[in-house]
Each structure stands twice: as structure tokens, then as C-alpha cells.
Design brief:
This protein is an alpha+beta fold and 173 residues long. Among the domains are: 84 residues, no CATH class; 36 residues. Helix content is 32%, strand content 17%. The chain is built from six helices and six strands, in the order H-H-H-E-E-E-H-E-E-H-E-H. The strands form two sheets. A three-stranded mixed β-sheet has the order 1-3-2. The chain has a three-stranded antiparallel β-sheet with strand order 4-5-6, with no helix packed on it. Strand 4 and strand 5 form a beta hairpin. The longest helix has 21 residues. The radius of gyration is 25 Å and the shape is elongated.
Length: 173
């Protein structure tokens, strides 16, 4: 945006001072071809990759969708802060990823303790499937899994060295 008008929105009644002109990002974030180019530039597969964008409130109460560019760009900051909830209509998003795929969860605002107790409305979330993995990933296929496999190889080499006598256990007195 060309400026941030947080101060003006809080302290100045004249709504003309609240206007923030959007830059090219907002004009291009629905462009899936551009998203594919960005993913490719970062060495990612444009058919599997996503651009994750936070700190940009999604005005879902006005019909705005957090999934942009045919799901290539995902805006996950939808107004967790109470100050944004009137603008967004919800209390933010959480992006979940596991071996089954990726889900976008939207959260409704917390209203009150009484409402939570009487209506059990303290945790109201809606899940959307963003990507479903056709073949589940295993731990071995992750960065952590590769590090664990290296550690197992190192431990097996150490154990073999003890067994064949290349390493001798020191006995403390």
C-alpha cells in the first residue's frame, strides 16, 4: 500500500484520511501464471507449491476468498486480532499440513465466556481442503526424516566400530 493509516483510523473521524491505495501486489495476487513464475524462480514445483501470505486481513464478510490465483497463493491472516474482526468478519485462519494434505481453517470470533459456556461456541472453526495428497508422505521424505536417517546411519557405523574393535570403550576408574 502507499501508506499505513492505522493512526488515522483510530483517531481521525474523516474517512478520507483512512484510504490506503493498494500496490501491484493486490492487483497481481490472483494471477496464477505470475504465482507459477515466482514459485519456479524459488526452485519450487509450480504444480505443487504455494505462496503463503500473512498479515493481510481477508474481508470474508464481503465475499473475499483467502485462496487466490486458483489456490496458488493462500492468505492466512484473516483477522485474529479483535480490532480487525469487524473488517474481516472472522477471527483469522490457520493453515494445517500433514501427510493427508493441506487444510485452511477459519475461526469465528470469541464472543464471551457466557456464550462459550451456554452455547459451547468458544471454538467454532471451518475446515477447507486446499490440497489432498494422493500419496501420503512419510517421515523419511521430509527434511527431518532425512536428518534422522543420517543419524541412524551414524549410530550404526559407531556400533559397527565398537563390534569390530576399531573403537574401544574407555573404562573410568
Amino acid at each position: 500500500k502507499d501508506k499505513m493509516t492505522t493512526f488515522e483510523r483510530l483517531y481521525v473521524e474523516d474517512k478520507a484520511t483512512h484510504i490506503e491505495h493498494k500496490n501491484a501486489y493486490y492487483k497481481q495476487r490472483n494471477n496464477s501464471e505470475l504465482c507459477n513464475m515466482i514459485l519456479t524462480e524459488f526452485g519450487l514445483d509450480p504444480y505443487k507449491g504455494h505462496i503463503i501470505n500473512g498479515h493481510t486481513p481477508v474481508k470474508e464478510n464481503r465475499g473475499e476468498n483467502p485462496l487466490k490465483a486458483n489456490g496458488k497463493l493462500i492468505v492466512i491472516d484473516g483477522g485474529f486480532s479483535k480490532a480487525y474482526q469487524a473488517t474481516t468478519g472472522l477471527a483469522g485462519y490457520t493453515l494445517l499440513y500433514n501427510s493427508f494434505g493441506m487444510q485452511l481453517v477459519s475461526h469465528q470470533p470469541f464472543t464471551s465466556v457466557k456464550d462459550a459456556l451456554v452455547n459451547e461456541s468458544d471454538i467454532v472453526s471451518t475446515r477447507r481442503i486446499v490440497d489432498k495428497e494422493l500419496e501420503r508422505k512419510t517421515v523419511r521424505e521430509t527434511d527431518v526424516g532425512q536428518r534422522l536417517a543420517e543419524q541412524v546411519n551414524d549410530l550404526q557405523a559407531l556400533l559397527a566400530a565398537y563390534y569390530d574393535g576399531r573403537l574401544v570403550e574407555k573404562v573410568s576408574k
